[in-house]
Amino acid sequence: MKADIRVALAGNPNTGKSSLFNVLTGLNQKIGNFPGVTVDKKTGTMQLPDGRHAEVVDLPGTYSLYPKSKDESIVFSVLADKIDTARPDLVVVILDATNLKRNLLLYTQIADLKIPVIVALNMMDMARASAIQIDVEQFSKKLGVPVVPMAVRKGEGIAELKQAIAYANKIALQPDSIDVNVFAPELIGQISDELQVDNPYLALQLAHQHEHLRYLTNEQSDRIETLEQEHSFHSQKAQAAETVARYNFINDLLYDTVKTPEAAQHETFSNKIDHILTHKLWGFVIFMAILLFIFQSIFAWSSYPMDLIETLFVLAEDAMRNIIPEGPLASLLIDGVLAGLSGVLVFIPQIAILFAFISILEDTGYMSRVTFMMDKLMRKVGLNGKSVVPLIGGFACAVPSIMGTRTIENWKDRMITIMVTPLVACSARLPVYTLLIALVVPDRSVWGIFNMQGLVLTAIYVFSLVSAIIVAFVLKFILKVRERGYFIMELPVYRMPRWKNVAFAMYDRSKAFVIQAGKVIIAVSIVLWVLASYGPGDRFEQIEQKYSSAEYKKTNTQEDIDRIIASEKLENSYAGMLGHTIEPVIKPLGYDWKIGIAIITSFAAREVFVGTMATIYSVEGDTDNIQSVQEKMASARNPQTGLPVFNLASAFSLMMFYAFAMQCASTVATVYRETKSWKWPAIQFAYMTVLAYGVAFITYQLLK
Amino acid sequence: MDLSQLEVGQTGVVKEFTDLEMSVKLMEMGCLPGETIKVTRVAPLGDPIAITVSGYQLSLRKLEASTIILQ
């Protein structure tokens, strides 16, 4: 569908911009990329009262056109780029009516670019409740643009805004808010002439931001740089002067149009909540309680839908086996693709639940309080107050947690958080740990109240968090900062969560995960399937022949023979050969070639370990049947020494390997998606593998 | 006297900034010379602090607050 008009939504964070976007576009939205940058671009379509269709772009929330983060730098480049298709015909600037002064700064900047503008004056209900009186008519007159009073949460003003968009002018009619020429008259003049820029403020912005603008040619950018030096232009001084001038304009404007009582009521209410939620003691207690609740819920609430998804896949598998004739195609589709898909989709409940909570915490304003409380502590180890939630979420699953690091504006803090989150013991490691602990740790009570196996498991969980913090501390000194770190952050007033936004966040993130991570995980599963299902030469045929003789059929049931065949095939498959190949490398860790295969297949997902062990030791039943796997593993002997393969040393060494190794295709895919480059997942993979090997080696050698 | 020296509940009026880069960001957020700032609370671990300025609450680290000189 070709859009008749392109509309961009711009505004400060916490102004209800996303809510408005969701209300305007409903489910007709998609997430793409702004060209050349790693920022999500949310676009949607809406129908106008006159039947035309408008494409709506949700620009990242920002306080100013001068960017503080990568996300924010998009706003100006979209508005200024004349070639880009994303350039809007109209900008709807959303202002928070309870906080007009700061909100108007961005408005005056956008208005001075001389793009047609409509003001959406949101949160009018809150303004009324706080006895803030706004003379909307006078306000609109002074600005020279349409102003639509709204309360998006309550659905007020939506129809009026759509009407205003339909009636919007094609050319900008607003007067200049300030005279920008005074900041650098000659420079603005020369840039305007040479680059054919017809707007002085655009010319000034080009002087400030030319280095980050993709649509300028290198020659143009260099020319601007030369001109700046000729006229000794100082970007920050000019910005400071501009900001002061804009606030003078805003103060004059507000003096005539807005009456604010001394202390707004919701402000004091918010303060009362803050007394408790950021209290020296209770603040932390409540935060821990909330985290515990989220953590518990992710486990408890997701188990039923996860079981359901697994059941559906079993049904799908049965159906496919009936439809597709047995052979390589069926095996590829069922054991490769379908198995891979189920590995991805089974995470959806956890992702949706974690994102529901994160979205509620953000929406209510509590997240910024968490940041406020934890910042000092987390800063010491190179993290940020906002890293707390992803790290804790990592106990459930690193995938949604890494997606949740988007709330961290600072590049370095976000990267470190992404790099260390997979170290936190996720739920996929649980089956591996429980299996190995049950194998080597005696099931007896310690001091009468604790169970030794439980204590070991708890210790591993605590250890994982500690190792994440240590690695973060090390990375703090390695990573180079690209931007200066700030902690100048708004503490928005507490509000009720908008359930629609929560639902959208769950939907958005789950969809993004399935599409992005799904591609990689399916590809990896197929590769692993090929490696495990085929072997060089005619080895497979020989195995089949060996066991098809009548002699075997007499002494063994068909089931037993099938299992033995499967086990021998695996040993002779490419995966088995890989296992044998890496055996010398993993021998110092205490592993044999069979564990080698399990480690290789585990790079798709950690829990595959149990399944692979089951196949290798040709155990009857499915992967859930841990008891029998355990028995087989317990009786496994080293053919040379006759000693058990799994002893305290090798089992702990293996657990340490699983604690540190990046054995999760979904996480690799997610890190790629979030950083939009293979560099970071590669570095992460490398450092975690090295660490895993090192720690496993030390563990084995010490315990041997 | 700079902002980081104020106790909770005390107010001050912004006079100038010692760090140009920081001042640009602070002014965009409504911390301008002549504005009254009130320290609303301090984080449980003593840093950062929360201030009320231009009708809303802003949090910033003490180091950042120390670049704001008060009248």
Report the helical percentage of chain B: 10-25%
Low-confidence stretches of chain B: none
| Amount of beta strand of chain B | 35-45%
> Regarding CATH, which class of the domain at 5-167 in chain A?
Alpha Beta
The fourth-level CATH homologous superfamily of the domain at 5-167 in chain A is P-loop containing nucleotide triphosphate hydrolases
The amount of helix of chain A comes to 55-70%
Task: Calculate the mean pLDDT score of chain A and round it.
Answer: 83
Biggest β-sheet description of chain B: 5 strands, antiparallel
CATH fold-level name of the domain at 5-167 in chain A: Rossmann fold
Tally the beta strands of chain B.
Answer: 5
Largest interface, with counts of residues having CB < 8 Å to the other chain, equals: A-B, 45 and 32 residues
> Unreliable segments of chain A (pLDDT under 50, ≥5 consecutive)?
619-625
Give the oligomeric state.
heterodimer
Mean pLDDT of chain B: 92
Question: Which short descriptors sum up this protein?
Answer:
heterodimer, A: 704 residues, Rossmann fold, 7-stranded mixed sheet, B: SH3 type barrels, 5-stranded antiparallel sheet, globular
Short characterization:
Chain A is of the alpha/beta class. In chain A, 62% of the residues lie in helices and 7% in strands. In chain A, strands 2-3-4-1-5-6-8 form a seven-stranded mixed beta sheet, with helices on both faces. In chain A, strands 7-9 form a two-stranded antiparallel ribbon.
